[in-house]
Amino acid sequence: MNEEIENFDDEELYIHKTIAVDEGQSPLRIDKFLSIHYKNATRTRIQNAILTDSVKVNEQSVKSSYKVKPGDSITISLSEPPKMPSEIIAEDIPLNIAYEDDTLLIVNKTPEMVVHPGFNNYSGTLVHALAHHFQNLPTSRNGEMRPGLVHRIDKGTSGLLVIAKTEFAMQHLAKQFFDHSSERTYYALIWGEPEADSGTIDANIGRSLKDRRVSAVFEEGDFGKRAVTHYKVLERLRYVSLIECKLETGRTHQIRAHMKHIGHPLFNDTTYGGNQVLRGNIFSKYKQFVDNCFEMIPRQALHAKSLGVVHPKTKEWMQFDSELPEDFKNVLEKWRGYLQYN
Is residue 6 part of a domain? Predict the structure, then answer.
């Protein structure tokens, strides 16, 4: 296995805490109060959280001028991008930009690109490309670079990502992902044909107890976190199927782990066993055909096709769609052609 699991879920980019105000607390503006409790959060970052209703006192939204009182219960949620190396060297890597304004950027990621630096991926990532594209991505914590990532997609998965270009946008977008109010649709090619034309997988996902590089499904007990994937069959191709997946949650490898769990691993997913002939008779002609398909799409057949978010500044709903990349389209056509003559 040559893949390292990314070390955060999308929702882990958004921390959530509750503070009980001491009985001896004197009246103090809530933005000042929270700045004291969060040494690494700037006053602006705290105020952005208040503006996006990410701070509540006794379950009610407040303004920055609200003065905390003894006995108040304060909940706060802050965007928390993944930690990066202190120095990111900008790299002139081409980006497929689907949309850009002064607030956000929509990127159509190529499958081979990794989103952020990590083990075995110290350069050539989306973050390095973004550093070259523009200089003022949101940063925090004593100058450590924390680009405006509010979600991510795996290496080997292609498709749409939204990047925040301001601190306010990062907080606003991260809250949408945390609240499940954003919309994400993926296309996947899976082994086999599901019995039903549509369904929902509601099963906890967490790091495997046997191999921490892999996500595992836990049906019972307290392991993992709740994960919900809705799927719909778009095309049945006898041995494989094209499906659409809509995510409610953003767990690491969610679609890949869920589809394996129900017996339909993603086509050519080396991490979850999809890189073997799982349907059809193993005879030389058919196996050679499948091997040719693996060569055509040398990665898991998963594409983040559409993305919908509320624009942080205009408050308008924005919907983006992308075409399937060439390798994905080509392997679909190859399967369709195979069925015509076999």
Answer: no
